[in-house]
Design a protein that fits this description.
Rossmann fold, 24 helices, binds iron/sulfur cluster
């Protein structure tokens, strides 16, 4: 009998779609079940009767939201044994989650035939993910035009800050990909990029075979992509099953998108739009899915598709492969770099987590340059055992390498949070709240990345560590509205106060630092604090008025 299955992802903002749920969906659809996917809490879904509910979990710092979501759906009329919670948090915080929700989580991967109490031999982790579920929600994952997969699992290392050894304890050095890609192409149309989430691909003894397969899949150096006619693909799908909600949604969004973007370019597509209205394809009453929509589409399709095909964007575009979890510099040999240079890798991500690894890191970047890999990126862990100077030096090394080798290395500073912390408030031994806030404020301006150009870097992080140290202490407003604060002499005023207090050498500066480090300027104790410190701390209390800043900006135009 057809079962009703509910798949839930808590409503956090994430870049990658929930691969685990996509595979569970594929499994249930294989069994002929009805699958509903939703992101967040829906009263309508809560009120329905489900045979099984699956909730995905991600990082531990989403604890509150995750628990809230689980408890929300626990109110559905469902037996605990049919309620499943899996994913990263469910694995790393198994006991606590069990205690908090009464649901026994599913640990690790779904890589065994008997997972989830099934009575068949199907291994869920090996199934082609069901991309259709992504078409049934409003949330758009930024990576939705990519194949997302793995060609290895696990990692041979056990870094203290990493959840991989818990999630994927066994290293698997090759997983065939091409059949899955073929499947995806047939069902959803060819995708542009290849995103491999492998945690340590270089540890694989079958690395050459992996590269050969990536080449075979069309990701050679300089590879191009021409988008397929998705309207035709989804029309053919819907023609076979009028109840294919994902196909119907996709068609509607393609029609909408096509008429809007083409019109923006002033191409006369009135004819296309008039067919849409003539056949009532995007009318509100069509919100009801099914036969009626397909009947209208059958009549409109012979008129619409020739126009769609003629005007849709068929220009070849670059397509890239990205090992998005980064590769291990220690395992990167000349032979492996040569192989990496054969595929259209962008960016090449090499982790640079510890300043002690600087020599090996530089050596590998030079090796990349030798093989003409020019677009690089790296995660730079901070707030762990590092100091702010370590962070600055690592970022600066990248800038210097860019200059020396004519590369574009984007650094992505990543704040360390222990894998079982329930929020993001952790402060590393050599850090404090103000320093962390400064890094965040700088990164907010640059959207999380450190730009590869020296002038940008120096403007954002300072020309030297001394300048960076000054930034670490600088009031947040003066960091965000840097040019304005400088021109209005606010920054100089603030710094003069710092210098003056520091020169007293009587412990007053330490007192000031204590408050600054806490980054709490609302509850400053009035009595114990020297008046000069009070004057200094005034600078930390939202000194820049947005209206003044906007006026100033207007005047400069
Ligand atoms: S090498 Fe990377 S994936 Fe492996 S344990 Fe260390 S951080 Fe995790």
């Amino acid at each position: 009998m057809k079962k009703e299955i509910l798949l839930i992802e808590p409503n956090y903002r994430n870049k990658y779609p929930p691969l685990g749920l996509m595979k569970i969906s594929a499994y249930h659809k294989l069994k002929g079940d009805n699958v509903t996917f939703y992101k967040g809490c829906s009263k309508k879904l809560q009120a329905k009767k489900w045979d099984r509910i699956y909730v995905a979990t991600l990082f531990s710092f989403y604890w509150k939201q995750t628990i809230k979501t689980i408890n929300f759906y626990k109110r559905c009329e469902i037996k605990t044994k049919n309620f499943f919670v899996g994913g990263i948090l469910a694995t790393t915080m198994f006991d606590e989650l069990y205690k908090e929700t009464g649901i026994k989580p599913v640990k690790g991967l779904l890589d065994k035939p008997n997972d989830l109490g099934k009575k068949d031999e199907i291994i869920i982790d090996k199934l082609t993910p069901d991309y259709d579920i992504l078409e049934t929600i409003d949330y758009v994952y930024p990576t939705n035009n990519s194949y997302i997969s793995y060609m290895t699992r696990g990692c041979c290392n056990h870094c203290k800050f990493c959840a991989v050894p818990y999630l994927e304890p066994a290293y698997i050095d090759y997983i065939q990909l091409k059949d899955q890609i073929k499947d995806i192409n047939n069902r959803y149309g060819e995708k542009r990029d290849l995103l491999l989430m492998d945690n340590n691909v270089l540890a694989s003894k079958q690395f050459d075979k992996i590269i050969d397969e990536i080449l075979e899949l069309g990701f050679e150096k300089g590879a191009k992509y021409r988008s397929p006619n998705l309207f035709e693909i989804y029309y053919n799908r819907l023609s076979k099953h009028y109840s294919d909600i994902a196909a119907e949604n996709k068609i509607k969004s393609l029609l909408n998108e096509f008429s809007q973007t083409r019109l923006k370019k002033k191409v006369v597509l009135g004819e296309f739009q008039s067919y849409i209205s003539e056949f009532g394809l995007l009318d509100d009453d069509n919100k009801k899915y099914g036969k009626r929509f397909l009947t209208k589409l059958h009549s409109a399709y012979p008129h619409l598709n020739p126009i769609y095909e003629k005007y849709r964007n068929k220009a070849p575009r670059n397509r890239f492969i990205d090992f998005n979890q980064g590769i291990d510099a220690r395992l990167l040999t000349q032979a492996k770099m040569k192989r990496l240079s054969e595929i259209n890798i962008k960016p090449l991500r090499i982790a640079f987590d510890n300043i002690k690894d600087k020599d090996i890191y530089k050596e590998k970047i030079r090796l990349a340059a030798e093989f003409s890999i020019k677009e690089l990126s790296n995660y730079v862990l901070y707030n762990f055992i590092d100091t702010p100077k370590d962070l600055y030096d690592r970022l600066k090394i990248n800038i210097d390498l860019n200059e020396e080798l004519n590369l574009r290395i984007f650094s992505f500073p990543m704040k360390y949070i222990p894998i079982t912390d329930k929020d993001r408030t952790y402060i590393g031994e050599h850090w404090n709240r103000k320093y962390l806030r400064t890094i965040q404020a700088i990164l907010n301006v640059t959207h999380g990345a450190v730009m590869p150009r020296q002038d940008f870097f120096e403007k954002a992080f300072g020309k030297s560590f001394n300048e960076f140290e000054k930034l670490l202490l600088m009031p947040e407003d003066y960091i965000i509205y840097r040019a304005y604060s400088k021109e209005k002499c606010l920054t100089d005023e603030w710094w003069n106060r710092i210098e003056s207090i520091r020169s007293k050498c009587n412990g007053t500066f330490d007192m000031a630092l204590e408050v600054i480090y806490s980054n709490d300027f609302k509850n400053i104790p009035t009595k114990e604090i020297d008046v000069s410190v009070h004057d200094l701390l005034e600078h930390y209390k939202n000194r820049v008025k947005l209206s003044d800043f906007n006026n100033w900006k207007e005047m400069r135009k």
